[in-house]
# Entry
Amino acid sequence: MVLSAGACTSDPRAEPPPGAAATADDPAGPTEPAPAGTGATSPGGWTEYRPGRGARVEVPAGARAVVVLVPGGGWRTADPTGLRPLAEHLAAAAVATVTITYGTSSTGDHFPVPANDVACAVGFAATAVPDVPVTVLGHSAGAHLAVLVGLDGAPGPLEPTATPRSTPSPTPRPGTPEAEPCPHEARDADAVVGLAGPYDLVRAERFAYDLLPLPPDEDPAAWAAADPLRHAALRPELPVLLVHGADDRVVPPSSTLGLADALRAGGHDTAVEVLPGVDHLEVLDPSVVGDVVLAWLREAVGAP
# Structure
């Protein structure tokens, strides 16, 4: 599998969360805290699902399911603005959404912090929209995290065997999200949707150093813990939808097909859609994927 150095772009119609400055090469900018205190709401409608991590919550009338939307950004950034149109499409069909940011290399964070953030957001979603199924949907690097957390939950603290000069100390920095426990009760996801994810970290190695700064031979435990293929036999009751564009030149469709094979071997009910003429960004377009996701949610978790 060959990954392009390109990254997903955000939706120009949507405003990013506070401080999430876009760039030309990777418009998914660094995450910024919402106002201090879990539950505080920013002027853009954002709230904190844990201190320093933002989320936008949309709960339409009659919602019978909630989807946590996890943005891509190559594990370097996590600007969720590109997911806004899909969130609106889901909300119009009476599906609640929680669109999140998470820690990345641009905020000085590496694995397991991003996965712990996503797992915490699942617990937050279950609290924000109680008594309904919780699905985690991610795009690109966010799809990798969604699948990983869906299969194995929060990895918890993981000490690297060594710390390169270019990365922060593994000791959590006081006042940062990773230094604070998740304020929500742990909750397993009921279903997972992955859009154009780089799931095989071995083949994606040179692009994965923003997630795992040490090479595999120096920190094999972290690479194993972060690899969804290693966990494909866990939680076989978890249904999974994997969608990929046939014309994706950033992450090839073979990434999705390889994970699908592993999940099916592990006993998962796994649906796969490879969409003709669709590239890495178009797979986010609700006119392309929105109804695919909704139809699958109705079957998998009984969404409206």
User: Anything to note?
Assistant: The CA atoms of residues 60 and 92 lie 7 Å apart. Helices lie at 84-92, 113-128, 141-152, 220-225, 254-265, 286-301. Strands lie at 46-50, 53-58, 66-70, 96-100, 134-139, 191-195, 240-245, 270-275.
